[in-house]
Write a structure and sequence with these properties.
By secondary structure, the chain is mostly beta strands. The chain contains one helix and eight strands, in the order E-E-E-E-H-E-E-E-E. Strands 3-4-1-2-8-7 form a six-stranded mixed beta sheet.
């Protein structure tokens, strides 16, 4: 079991992240393990996520969830959920 991260088309800036739990990696996935958590990334998404840092944050004001620091993002929309690469 692992966390699947994908970059998909959509949102006001063109691309957004899609995260979810998956039972197993696909044959062509990259698999990274950190602190006991496996992360699955498909071949389409891998170049967009190169060099990214993913962290789980629990902020009382904004709630809890995953935060992605991605050096490949050129701009983001006002809400921060959509990006241009």
């Amino acid at each position: 079991m692992g966390l699947r991260i994908r970059v998909v088309g959509g949102g006001c800036s063109g691309m957004s992240y899609e995260l979810g739990w998956d039972d197993a990696p696909a044959d062509d996935d990259s698999v990274v393990e950190s602190q006991g958590i496996k992360v699955f990334v498909d071949t389409h998404s891998a170049p967009y996520l190169q060099g990214s840092e993913i962290d789980y944050v629990d902020n009382n004001m904004m709630g809890a969830g995953f935060a992605i620091k991605n050096p490949n993002v050129k701009s983001s929309c006002g809400c921060g959920h959509s990006h241009q690469f």
